[in-house]
C-alpha cells in the first residue's frame, strides 16, 4: 500500500487495487478500440457505455478507496462513503480479514486494506516483524493481515504507531467523544455516476 503526505495526514490507497484498476481500464479501452475498428461511430456511441461503466466501477472500487491517518483520527474512504473515526473512539485494531477498527461506535473495515492470505506472512523478514508495534501481536504472533508488506499490514502499522503513541502519552485516558456517531460522508458523485452509467449501459444493449 503506497502512502503519501496530503498535508493533513498520510493517505494510503491499495497498491494491488490500483494495479487492478489500471488493468481493467486498459481492457475497457481495448474494447472501445476494437469496437471502433470493427464497427462505425454509431456503434461506439451505443456500445461504449458498458465499457465506460466497467472502467468507472474499477476506478470507484479499486482506485479511489484509501485509509487516511491524521492528527484527528482515521478516515476510511470506502466505495460509497467515507467514515472518520477520532482517536478517542478507537479501542482495538484488527486485521483478520481487512484493517478493522473496533470503536465506541462499532467496528468499521477499510475497503482499501484487505488482508492477504495466511501464507504470504512467511515472506516477511523476521527483523521487520520484531519491529512491529506491541498491539500487532495476538497470542505471541501476528496475523497474516499485519504483514507490513500487505495493504492491511502497512495501513495497520501506521494506525497502530499513532494510536499507541497517543495512548502511551495519556491522551486517550478517560477519553470523551464529541459526537454520538462517527462522521460519515456519502460519495454522492460516485453514486450518481454509477447509476447513470449503469442505466445507460443497460439501455444501450437492450434497445
Structure description:
- 43% of the residues lie in helices and 25% in strands.
- Helix 1 packs antiparallel against helix 2 and helix 2 packs antiparallel against helix 5 (188-206).
- It has helices at 15-38, 41-63, 126-130, 151-168, 188-206; strands at residues 4-5, 9-13, 66-70, 73-77, 81-86, 90-94, 98-103, 106-114, 137-138, 141-142, 183-186.
- It is α+β, with helices and mostly antiparallel strands.
- It folds into two domains: 14-64 and 188-206, no CATH class; 67-184, no CATH class.
- A hairpin with a 3-residue loop joins strand 4 and strand 5 (81-86).
- The protein contains five helices and eleven strands; from the N terminus they run E-E-H-H-E-E-E-E-E-E-H-E-E-H-E-H.
Rounded to the nearest angstrom, the radius of gyration is 21 Å
Number of helices: 5
- In total, the number of strands is 11
Helix content: 40-55%
Q: How many angstroms does the end-to-end distance come to? A: 43 Å
* SSE succession: EEHHEEEEEEHEEHEH
Beta-strand content estimate? 15-25%
Q: pLDDT average, as an integer?
A: 86
> What's the number of domains?
2
| Unreliable residue stretches | none
Gist of the model:
By secondary structure, the protein is of the alpha+beta class. It has 5 helices and 11 strands, in the order E-E-H-H-E-E-E-E-E-E-H-E-E-H-E-H.
